[in-house]
Write a sequence for this structure.
């Protein structure tokens, strides 16, 4: 064997896992190395020094606690003064840190330098004793016998039946976790968009005149009817499905479409659901030159010029497009609701 | 039926002795009081001098315990002010950029805690840093246990409890992250909603039940709150109790070294040294967390604004421990070429949607999490090792496991790193798309490379150990022999160091064995295959013969004196 | 916002709200249109003929290679006819133009031209066709702005690219939205008006001038109000926080563990 050899596989030292041999090492276990006394063990001066170090650390802890009080009582934070708040937070933090580290490091140093540092050997007790286990098994068998459960299958079977059914109420009682009146998946197909509903800016609520929208503009849009929903939770849920991004580009930039979708845009103005088809983050990062629309959560990239086709990232479907047109006063309105469910894919979507 | 004998097992004197005992010292009086009521002396006798091995890597579990305690205490403080209601309110507190803004009560009270409760900001930051440290400490503790083989028999079940603790910790963290009801965590919940909906058959309904109807509704924050402050902490506390109980039953493992065997524990007794160190360390961990909370801002929720389904912000990420869930979602392409991975499964009632781009990323997550739980059993099955182990492996001496662990770590790192792909792209002026594509490549190649490289490093380190055993350490001194040869001087290591280097097992491949019917089952074949991956490259520890030969070689060739122990060994071997 | 949100809860007041809304919108539109008109008409007033002349000279020497003679555009750069003075003031004033090299996006660097030259270039481009002009001081006076309204507008319209703390963020294929700290109010305003490079534009009918002022006021307030919790870690959120706990946090812990278990000398 050379200097970097791998050893002799046939030698004694080779032990297959589980063979249970634990000796056979190159040398026998030499036992604990001789104890080496610390400075503080032999030199009273060093011990005194350690004592002073530890009490100095405890003093630092006291100073830390005082510092905390200074931060809490002396630093006056007037409402909204973030600089003073920061000073207070720093003093509280440093105060607690010194108070805790002083005690902690002090006690540890005390243990390290002054408390006995002789290593001790303790024997492990065997975890299992054969006779104990046999006795336990016998006891269990006796107990089972005394219940007579093996002899009386009727008892056993009805108990099993009862025990299987009994937990069900605990599950059923959770049914009303869904508090909505229109329980079921059908509601996910609709949003509050419908024909003639104006597109208004979020959060100002102003309607949008097509003529005011310059090329390269984006507007974050909600349906005008959203504000009519008075209940907070309902309004949030309605908004979560109906948020729309409105983009204007050169009409030539839009890829040509046929069929119904031809009328979904208005002079280069195109609208899509902001809810990502991947897992639902708002997709809102629009690049006016590339027409890319990026989701900041998982980087799905959609091409606004090609009906929001996915061009990168984890989304598997284009963003649903909201068909739009203008009303008599020139304001943008929806032609209809989305023609497909918005947001992430769900099992019943079909 | 025989009548029960009334013959007592203990004598009357034994009972009355208790009442007559007069302790001499104050400590005695206290312990007597406690002992007569709850029998505490047994505990002291058992634990007072119980030995714990001392090594810095053994302390991560303590960090986890302590940061959990600190998080519980600071969290209790937060509950005095925080109101998890999603009722709409108008902010009238002292933070100017939010004044007059409509928001949920939860967000408003979280702002109040930050700006209007003295010390509230500090406690919030302490709580959040504590949570990050809690999960980190658990993760590092698990890595230590994994790479040293401390999960092996008889500690497999405690490893499983530890895995459950990690999962509970993730749950505690995520439910807490969502509570302030701002835009960042709201979008996090939205992602959870999207992932739930992708689950076939039941997913949509699970989402409805969680959110009380359609996302986001106004139910979810109070529900998460009850999970966060009651259900999950209770589970964690119970698991910690079980975990520590088993540590006591098993006694701690120890690294190989002189004096240490499978039958003993070498270390310091609990009283006083270990208790002082462990107790002091609680304060040290508290101090470190307070330092972080005082100096570094965490979760500046006033920047994010109240949750509203419309806004989102660049750099939307979860806390670090949820990062890999987010990252693996980012890595998955939604389509391959022009073929979308989302499709409609034709069914008699009209078809069901299958969102593979969300479902496939759940596979590596499930593999890693389930893999963690079953690893001790899997490894025992592969190696065929049924022995008890109380002496740890040095990671280099288990090259197969170490390499596999590194591979899984790299896999995790790729997913974790992917969650920060956008920030990486901006900070290093890279293309976001390139970062993702490279990470996709690394997702597959990384673990394989890590396995190969780690295994090679382990084997090299083992060879280095062999060389040190056989020839000693390089002294850095070149000497000229009388006949003109130049040679580097080597210093032999002493027996104590030497024993650490040779005291390990190097199992060989156990080939597939036929079963009772004389057939080699497919299962047995795959076991043998994995076993080969584990053990085929091996470096055996220096054997006694090799060592003696090297010693006598040295003895003949060099005038340098052998260490006393070595020559004694040489002498004894001659007899 | 206060009035609006309270009325949401009173359906009876919907009619009133609608009326107020319409009046308000109409008013804003009137204001916005007049601002636009005012901008269009003040081009010749603000810039003298010699400014335009000097600007053209600078343009031909420095910009025409890409943007073409007469700024009509070429393969290497877009036409600047109708780009307006605001676009020039932003691009040249922040040093983005002239570009150092072609790349995914022009980066900010020290300005190549002084204020006067920038003004002259702006004058020249403004003379080529009507476009957004340099904002009036009135709309840059952040002391007038409503910061909480500005915050709401910022979170809806800007934070998805620029980050909620205006720390910047990634776009596709190497492009990025820059951090906004330290950017002059004027340049923020011009960027919204003109939509430089891949940024969409937010003209005065989309985000009225007073709202832009609110946004700028919000940003400037964020810059000056301080960071209450300590070091902000780049305001990058959970990633930098995770990085800190895994670096500084872990190092502090390991340091104390190693010391704690080491033998005293």
């Amino acid at each position: 064997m050379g200097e970097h050899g791998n050893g002799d596989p046939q030698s004694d030292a080779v032990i297959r896992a589980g063979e249970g041999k634990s000796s056979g090492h190159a040398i026998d276990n030499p036992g604990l190395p001789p104890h080496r006394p610390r400075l503080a063990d032999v030199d009273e001066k060093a011990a005194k020094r350690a004592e002073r170090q530890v009490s100095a650390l405890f003093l630092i802890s006291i100073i830390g606690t005082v510092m905390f009080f200074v931060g809490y009582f002396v630093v006056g934070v007037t409402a909204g003064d973030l600089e003073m708040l920061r000073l207070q937070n720093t003093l509280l933090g440093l105060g607690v840190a010194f108070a805790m580290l002083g005690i902690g490091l002090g006690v540890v140093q005390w243990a390290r330098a002054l408390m006995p540092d002789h290593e001790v050997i303790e024997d492990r007790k065997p975890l299992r004793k054969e006779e104990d286990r046999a006795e336990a098994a016998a006891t269990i068998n006796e107990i089972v016998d005394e219940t007579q459960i093996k002899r009386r299958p009727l008892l056993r079977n009805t108990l099993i039946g009862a025990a299987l059914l009994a937990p069900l109420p605990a599950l059923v009682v959770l049914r009303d976790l869904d508090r909505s009146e229109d329980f079921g998946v059908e509601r996910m197909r609709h949003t509050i968009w419908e024909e003639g509903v104006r597109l208004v800016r979020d959060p100002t609520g102003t309607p949008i005149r097509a003529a005011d929208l310059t090329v390269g503009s984006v507007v974050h849009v909600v349906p005008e009817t959203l504000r009519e929903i008075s209940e907070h939770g309902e309004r949030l849920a309605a908004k979560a499905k109906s948020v729309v991004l409105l983009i204007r580009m050169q009409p030539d930039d839009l890829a040509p479409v046929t069929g119904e979708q031809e009328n979904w845009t208005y002079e280069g103005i195109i609208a899509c659901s902001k809810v990502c088809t991947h897992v639902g983050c708002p997709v809102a990062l629009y690049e006016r030159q590339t027409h890319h629309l990026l989701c900041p959560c998982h980087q799905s990239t959609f091409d606004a010029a090609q009906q929001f086709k996915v061009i990168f990232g984890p989304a598997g479907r284009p963003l649903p497009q909201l068909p739009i047109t203008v009303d008599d006063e020139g304001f943008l309105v929806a032609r209809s609701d989305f023609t497909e469910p918005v947001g992430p894919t769900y099992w019943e979507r079909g | 039926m025989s009548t029960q004998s009334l013959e007592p097992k203990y004598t009357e004197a034994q009972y009355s002795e208790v009442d007559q005992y007069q302790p001499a010292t104050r400590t005695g009086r206290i312990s007597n009081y406690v002992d007569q009521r709850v029998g505490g002396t047994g505990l002291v006798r058992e634990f007072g001098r119980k030995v714990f091995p001392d090594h810095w890597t053994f302390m991560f579990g303590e960090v986890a315990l302590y940061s959990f305690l600190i998080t519980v205490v600071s969290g209790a403080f937060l509950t005095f002010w925080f109101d998890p209601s999603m009722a709409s309110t108008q902010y009238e507190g002292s933070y100017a950029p939010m004044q007059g803004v409509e928001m949920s009560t939860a967000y408003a009270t979280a702002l109040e805690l930050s700006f209007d409760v003295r010390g509230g900001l500090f406690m919030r930051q302490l709580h959040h840093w504590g949570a990050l440290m809690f999960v980190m400490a658990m993760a590092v503790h698990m890595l230590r246990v994994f790479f040293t083989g401390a999960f092996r028999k008889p500690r497999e079940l405690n490893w499983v409890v530890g895995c459950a603790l990690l999962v509970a910790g993730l749950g505690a963290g995520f439910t807490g992250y969502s509570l302030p009801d701002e835009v960042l965590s709201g979008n996090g919940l939205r992602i959870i909603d999207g992932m739930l909906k992708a689950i076939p058959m039941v997913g949509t309904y699970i989402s409805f039940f969680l959110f009380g109807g359609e996302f986001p509704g106004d139910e979810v924050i109070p529900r998460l709150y009850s999970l966060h402050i009651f259900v999950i902490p209770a589970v964690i506390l119970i698991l910690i109790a079980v975990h520590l109980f088993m540590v006591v039953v098993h006694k701690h493992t120890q690294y190989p070294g002189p004096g240490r065997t499978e039958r003993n524990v070498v270390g310091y007794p609990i009283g006083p040294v270990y208790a002082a160190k462990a107790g002091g360390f609680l304060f040290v961990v508290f101090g470190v967390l307070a330092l972080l909370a005082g100096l570094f801002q965490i979760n500046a929720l006033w920047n994010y604004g109240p949750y509203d389904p419309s806004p989102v912000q660049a750099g939307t990420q979860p806390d670090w421990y949820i990062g890999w869930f987010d990252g693996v979602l980012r890595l998955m392409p939604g389509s391959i070429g022009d073929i979308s991975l989302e499709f409609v499964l034709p069914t008699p009632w009209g078809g069901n949607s299958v969102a593979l781009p969300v479902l496939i990323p759940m596979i590596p997550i499930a593999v890693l999490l389930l893999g963690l739980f079953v690893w001790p059993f899997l490894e025992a099955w592969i190696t065929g090792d049924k022995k008890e182990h109380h002496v740890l492996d040095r990671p280099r001496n288990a090259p197969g496991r170490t390499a596999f662990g590194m591979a899984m770590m790299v896999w995790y790192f790729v997913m974790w790193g992917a969650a920060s792909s956008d920030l990486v792209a901006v900070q290093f002026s890279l293309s976001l798309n390139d970062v993702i594509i490279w990470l996709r490549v690394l997702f597959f190649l990384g673990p394989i490379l890590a396995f190969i490289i780690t295994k090679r490093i382990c084997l090299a380190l083992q060879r280095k150990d062999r060389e040190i055993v056989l020839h000693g350490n390089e002294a850095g001194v070149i000497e000229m022999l009388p006949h003109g040869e130049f040679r580097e001087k080597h210093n032999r290591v002493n027996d104590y160091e030497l024993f650490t280097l040779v005291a390990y097992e190097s199992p060989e491949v156990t080939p597939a064995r036929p079963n009772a019917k004389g057939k080699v089952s497919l299962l047995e074949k795959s076991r043998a295959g994995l076993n080969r991956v584990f053990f085929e490259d091996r470096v055996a520890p220096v054997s006694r013969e090799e060592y003696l030969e090297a010693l006598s070689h040295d003895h003949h060739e060099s005038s340098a004196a052998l260490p006393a122990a070595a020559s004694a060994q040489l002498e004894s071997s001659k007899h | 916002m206060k009035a609006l949100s309270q009325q949401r809860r009173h359906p009876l007041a919907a009619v009133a709200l609608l009326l107020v809304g319409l009046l308000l919108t109409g008013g804003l539109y009137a204001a916005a249109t007049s601002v636009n008109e005012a901008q269009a008409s003040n081009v010749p007033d603000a810039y003298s003929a010699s400014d335009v002349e000097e600007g053209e000279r600078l343009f031909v020497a420095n910009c025409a290679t890409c943007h073409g003679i007469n700024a009509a555009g070429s393969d290497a750069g877009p036409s600047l006819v109708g780009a307006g003075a605001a676009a020039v003031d932003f691009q040249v004033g922040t040093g983005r133009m002239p570009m150092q090299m072609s790349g995914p996006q022009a980066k900010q660097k020290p300005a190549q031209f002084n204020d006067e030259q920038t003004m002259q270039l702006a004058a020249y481009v403004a003379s080529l066709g009507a476009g957004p002009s340099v904002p009036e001081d009135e709309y840059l006076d952040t002391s007038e702005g409503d910061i909480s309204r500005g915050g709401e507008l910022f979170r809806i319209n800007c934070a998805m690219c620029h980050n909620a703390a205006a720390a910047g963020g990634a776009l596709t294929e190497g492009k990025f939205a820059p951090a906004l700290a330290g950017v002059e109010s004027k340049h923020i305003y011009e960027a919204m008006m003109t939509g430089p490079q891949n940024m969409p534009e937010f003209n005065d009918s989309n985000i009225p001038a007073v709202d832009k002022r609110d946004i700028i006021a919000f940003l400037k307030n964020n810059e000056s109000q301080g960071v209450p919790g300590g070091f902000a870690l780049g305001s990058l959120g959970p990633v930098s926080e995770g990085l800190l706990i895994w670096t500084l946090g872990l190092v502090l812990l390991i340091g104390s563990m190693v010391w704690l278990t080491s033998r005293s000398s």
Notes: The mean pLDDT of chain C is 81. Residues 31 and 37 of chain C are 10 Å apart (CA to CA).
